[in-house]
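Review this today:
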Amino acid sequence: MQHVTNDHRQMNPSPWKGWKQPIPTSIYGVFGQDLLVLNLYIHLLLHTRNEGMEYEEWYEGKPYKLDRGQVLFGKKRYAQYLHCSPSSACNALKRLRERFGFVDTKPCKDYTIVTWKNYDELIRFSTPTGQQTNTEKTAPVTYKNDKNEQLHKSVGAHAQYDEELNELAEICETVFGHQKRVTPEVARNYTERRKIFGKEEIQQAFKNILNEGDHFKLDKNISRSLDWWLASDSRIEDMLHCHLNRPPAKQ
């Protein structure tokens, strides 16, 4: 029997027993222009454990053990995957955790253990071919709690309104003079607003900000994020009619 050294185990992670990690296709709209985080998301998900490790393995001479839904992040290794500096890889992981809220992290001395939030629900969005062989007997996916429902909306909303959100982002760049990033929260809010307003109405609401007499919205709220502008039906309604507000009388 061939002797397996720690160095060999470092370079060759344990096999996943034929598991092919699904990548939700709708995720490509979630990260907007942040392509570094998008690529990190894909690489992390591809390396995520679908089963917990039975035995410890080694990384940089240190032992580690991962559970289902966890992946080991080393800044040097992922810098090679992403074709960036190690510090940029670390910053991308920070944005994935803090800005987009997909993961939790546990830093260690030489590596970071990354844990996906709602891992089982995340991979349910894209099932590998052949995994479900009898679709007639397969029960429909249900979301029984708020966290699962939020995850469903954050990814699913982009699949439904991806093109509309891109159009709205372009309009916002003209109206506000800078880009407004499309995030999962933006997608959720946009989905809620579309229950009341059509695509053209929402677009016109943003364009109409430029017609407000005293330019109050631009002066006071120009730097606010897009999810804030889409936070309520009443805000869209106000934007649609703000041009009717008379500017204050000159003294």
User: Anything to note?
Assistant: Strands lie at 57-59, 62-64, 70-73, 103-107, 112-116. Residues 19 and 131 are 10 Å apart (CA to CA).
